[in-house]
Specification:
about 375 residues; 2 domains; AI-2E-like; transport; mainly alpha; transmembrane helix
Length: about 375
């Protein structure tokens, strides 16, 4: 009798295991298919939500001016953001295009001769001799140099075209994210209510508090990191364009990337200063130097002004997030990675501050709430 009962229980256990495995497998297949469907929209929707959280206070102020028309306020902010994004892009792309056209014309014009290298070039450690020989060949025989280094030139042009295409795709992604952000801001009450419900459901009684912390972190990072990087690149870029520095657009974009990654803009500015003093008169070169140095150091006082109070995020967290995000998601990952990693850091610190007694009482409260909802 005992053996039959044990055999019966074993059969039920195996049936339950098979049924559970089938259910889990089907659920896993459904999740994989769902992720494949929504994968192209994950980054723009996530970035749109982050932008919406950051711009919501400004939307509320604009709503008062617009006499309560929040949809119009959100749409207007999105259009302003798109204009701010597109106008510098047109200027930078125009500068890059002019530089490429000028370089192409220079290479195709057989009468143009490049100045030869000085002997000091050969003294540069590691690369001096190769650089001297390549430069001398381009200066003396352009046609032969193009034939000899044709593969390297093609590879460089391909890499440049790929980076340019990636940049354009990122701009399109930003525009889509801004439009999504406008929708989130227009329906902010219902979205905020849903987020709080999900947070409480997942985290417990601290869910609503953590949702507020996430919003504060997003605003802090976007203003203190992305905002400062944008202001700094505009200040330095304006100097590049005013003094007609070659490749001003590329230099401005490189400064923006470095600032997002929390690296000093002076890494790019200092070589440009040396170049300016090599061909400009002393007075304009000095004005340019003071301008870009002040702009390069401006983050030291802009970050304390724009970083949210009460939210202190170590710079290594921002740096790792920005670089890791760029590796995984391209240029837009610079912004997204910094924000996401900062959110996780703040949530981890907040979780560490919760005492074990609070965790236990929180679990007991959750269990009591479940019993009240399901008395049977």
């Amino acid at each position: 009798m005992d053996k039959q009962l044990e055999k019966y229980k074993s059969k039920i256990f195996i049936n339950n295991m098979l049924e559970s495995s089938i259910r889990i497998g089907l659920l896993l297949i459904l999740l994989v298919w769902t992720y494949d469907i929504i994968k192209p929209f994950v980054i723009p929707v996530l970035w749109g939500a982050i932008i919406a959280v950051a711009l919501m206070p400004l939307t509320l102020k604009l709503e008062g001016v617009m006499k309560g028309r929040r949809g119009l306020s959100a749409t207007l902010l999105a259009l302003i953001g798109i204009a701010i994004l597109v106008v510098p892009l047109v200027v930078v792309m125009g500068s890059i295009f002019d530089g490429v056209v000028g370089l192409t014309a220079l290479l195709q014009n057989e009468t143009v001769k490049l100045p030869g290298p000085t002997p000091k070039v050969a003294e540069i450690p590691l690369v001096g001799e190769k650089l001297y020989s390549a430069w001398a060949l381009f200066a003396t025989n352009m046609e032969q140099a193009l034939v000899r280094y044709g593969e390297e030139i093609k590879a460089g042009v391909s890499a440049f075209a790929g980076a340019l295409g990636s940049g354009l795709a990122t701009i399109v992604m930003f525009i889509i994210s801004l439009l999504i952000a406008a929708g989130f801001m227009a329906y902010s009450e219902s979205m905020a209510k849903a987020v709080k419900q999900i947070s409480v459901r997942v985290v417990g009684k601290h869910g609503e508090e953590w949702a507020g912390l996430i919003a504060a972190t997003i605003r802090s990072v976007l203003l203190g990191v992305v905002g400062v990087a944008f202001i700094q690149s505009v200040l330095i870029g304006s100097a590049m364009f005013v003094f007609k520095i070659p490749a001003a657009g590329l230099i401005t974009f490189a400064v923006f990337i470095l600032a997002i990654a929390q690296l000093p803009a002076l890494l790019i500015v200092l070589p440009v200063i040396v170049y300016v003093f090599s061909y400009m008169d002393t007075t304009p070169a000095t004005i340019f130097t003071v301008w870009v140095l002040l702009a390069g150091l401006s983050d030291n006082f802009l970050k304390p002004l724009l970083m949210g109070r009460g939210v202190e995020i170590p710079m290594p967290v921002i740096l790792i997030g920005a670089i890791g995000g760029m590796i995984s998601a391209g240029i837009i990952g610079l912004f997204l990675g910094a924000v996401v990693l900062a959110i996780w850091y703040e949530l981890f610190i907040s979780w560490m501050k919760v005492s074990p007694q609070e965790k236990e009482s929180g679990n007991e409260t959750d269990e009591a709430a479940k019993v009240e909802q399901n008395p049977d």
